[in-house]
Amino acid sequence: MKEPDLFEIERRNTLREKLKKHNQQYYEFNSPIISDKEYDNLLKKLEELENKFPHLRTTNSPTQKVGAPPEIIKSQKIFPHRLPMISLNNTYNPKEIYNWYERIKRALPDQNQISFVLEPKIDGSSISITYESGKFIRALTRGDGEKGEDVTENIKILNQLPETIMDLPKIFEVRGEVYMPHSIFKELNKTEHFANPRNAAAGSLKLLDYNITKKRGLKIFLYAKGYVEGNFLLETQSAFIEFLKSKKLPINNNIKTSYNIDEIIEKCQEWHKKRNVLDYDIDGMVIKVNSFSKQDQLGSTMKSPRWAVAYKFPAKQATTTIKDIVFQVARTGVITPVAKLEPVALSGVIIKRSTIHNFDELARLDIKIGDRVLIQRSGDVIPKIIKVIKEVRTGSEKIIYPPKICPVCDSSVKKSNKKVAYKCNNHLHCQAQLQGALEHFVSKKAMNIVGCGTSMIKQIIERGLVKNILDLYKLTHKDILTLKLIKDKKTKTFLANIEKSKSRSLNNLIFALGINFVGEKVGKILAKKFQNLESIQNLSFEELIKIEDIGIKTAESLTSFFKNNPMLGTNLKNLGITPSQKKQNIKNNFCKDKYFVITGTLKKYRRMDLIKEIENRGGIVNNSISKKINYLIAGDNPGSKLLKAKKLKVPILNEEKFINELN
Ligand code: IVH
Predict the structure, then answer these.
(1) 223 lines ligand 1 (CB under 6 A)
(2) Using one digit for the tens of pLDDT, what is the confidence trace for 25-54?
(3) Which CATH class is domain 318-399?
(4) DSSP letter string over 132-168?
(5) Given ligand 1 and candidates 40, 83, 88, 91, which is best to mutate, with the most ligand atoms within 8 Å of its CB?
(6) Could you tell me the pLDDT band of residue 585, with boundaries at 50, 70 and 90?
(7) What is the pLDDT of residues 315-337, one digit of tens each?
(8) Ligand 1 within 6 A of CB of 310
(9) Which superfamily does CATH assign the domain made up of 6-60 to?
(10) How far is residue 313's CA from residue 269's CA, in Å, rounded to a whole number?
């Protein structure tokens, strides 16, 4: 056997120490400071080292154990697990799954077909539940895998597991996951600030006061057989799941069985894309050999079973360093801190910056320049800094305060009394706000002035050619030719597009003005009721709030905007911008005054066209399902909106049925 030298021993010790610290952060404090992928990389390095020099492997190596020793948490009672609670091996790509598949095929040589079960990997906190003689007697956390903490009362109070179950084996241990649904997490985090639903679930589960646990809305999925004694005839994982269901124990509904490993891999990738439709976090999929006898044949190591493997989705978390914090001025004048980051890969994208919600958030997270931070992407959402890794601070980090003057126009910055926002009130005199206002004005859903991009707007502002939206309509051919990189032909098209925009509909113009709280929807409501901008401009606050769907904030914002811009309608008119609402002669009233939501992939319509069709017929299209919605139009792969519509008994139409209704 090859002997390790001092350097290798030293390397092993460092890796061990790091892994132990991260285990403690994860299992004991529910507060990891590196991503799962980074942890797995460290573990892999240690495993490789131990494989090369088996002398270096001892029973207390982090490669041989899972979790944190429960003794550290003194508060709860500790009980041994009848069977150790081990973990799963992780794979990150199809190739690693095929490798696993080849390994088990070799270990099961006389089997020509192997059946697999594919289950979502719930990102929560694992538990072991024991029923004795049909009575729910104990719930334990994983702890260090050998012994766990007693959370029986915390689980009982959730009312999700029957107190007694008929016809169970004498001792029936079942394992699963406690998790926190997104909807509940969102609400809880308005006051509690957990980094993610997993930490929130783990923290809430172990509370000594289980009445607080009850309020936390935790849920349970059960998915694995533990120690069973007595009459038990089930032979497969799929039959076991069905059995749990028949006993009213909570199971996940997205479980699939297949003999085909390619299909299993395909499903894993499908779930990676659509995991956002679920109301809970999954961090991957678990592939299990279905037959219990084959599972026994394959066996387990100290750490993980050979008969199952996790397919982990690419890390949604990563750690990086804050290089700088800059201030960004939005179209509305609101100033937001933006962190410039040491570039880091996160679910296949290189992240270089992250917007911090506001200065309160900056202070709450205690973010400083030079800090090492954990960033996270939830679904498709832009990455957010979720916490600072204070353990690695050196003392040279630099604190950042809200600016006293606008970083763009130097005028003074005010914090509004009611809100947390810091604002530059220099409006269109501030170049950043003018840039934002013009970009919004020319955008597709507003005036749709094609060929007027960010850099073109920047140039016309810098040359003093445009100081407000009206100036756009005063630009001449000569003006534009003075800009960098603009050719004669492009100038002509650009001017033609400005001209074309004069005939945009009234709703587009209202939206284009960029009035606070006046989005596309309010634009459409106002344009439907009034003939031109001047009639809208003259409406009082009282008249505005009488209009359905226009609230106090919107009405206030509209009146104050027109008070500050009293000549807008006239000025626009003088420049030839006189849009009006085109009335359509449509007899069928199916859509009139009804609310619609659209979901899934459509075949006959493009989504934009369907929205237009409904709106031209007097209907309103909303984004989310609520009781007031009259119809959900569902295409293929409809997702969570369909479930919600069914729950609220909102009538559902497919595209064909909708088209039939119009004829
Ligand atoms: S089976 C013997 N199935 O993932 C292995 N585990 O990273 C038993 N998990 O410790 C685990 N969903 O806490 C299994 N459908 C699922 C799971 C699942 C989540 C957790 C579990 C496990 C961890 C491994």
Answers:
(1) yes
(2) 877 776 778 887 888 889 999 999 988 888
(3) mainly beta
(4) ETTEEEEEEE-TTSSEEEB-HHHHHTTT-S-SB-SS-
(5) 88
(6) low
(7) 778 899 999 999 999 999 999 99
(8) yes
(9) Helix hairpin bin (1.10.287.610)
(10) 9
